[in-house]
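Our consortium's second objective concerns turning raw sequence data into structural hypotheses that experimental partners can test. To show how far this objective has progressed, the report includes one record in full. It was chosen at random from the queue rather than selected for favorable results. The single chain below, 163 residues long, was entered without modification.
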Amino acid sequence: MAEKQKEFQLVVFTLGEEEFGVDISQVREIVRLVQITYLPKAPAFIEGVVNLRGQVLPVIDLAKRLGVSSKERSEATRIIVVEVGENTVGMIVDSVSEVLRLSSECVEDVPSLVETEVPEHYIRGVGKLKDRLLVLLDLNRILSPEEVQSVERHIKSSTNKPA
């Protein structure tokens, strides 16, 4: 990777049998799964919206978005609230395991040999730990600005309707 950064600080989570990492600087908070309000006509991977301390946030099912399998929702299921550009979005993941530091020497560009169901353009690299591989996601590619704007329009149109 061409980045000058010597170390990555990552929030590590699972979807199905795979482990993923996202840059901690983009993570605002991690919350338990709360009631999600369905949004009609939203894209399939948009689970709906949640009210988090007065802020209405779109929530995406990250497994659906990436086209990977996930486990059934449980006590371990979490919503990772992330900043993507100017927007704040919640991502549903099976569980969050740790925050770790990973030296840039342990991160490689996506080798074609790595077996993952995730489309390559969502991946920033692969982190190599002692006995496991960590797929590092590029959050800026998971939701395009157009998709975020589309979701925000859905939120506005569904929350402005009289009850």
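The partners drew two points from this record. The first helix runs from residue 62 to 66. The two ends are 51 Å apart (CA to CA). Both points have been shared with the crystallography group to help prioritize constructs.
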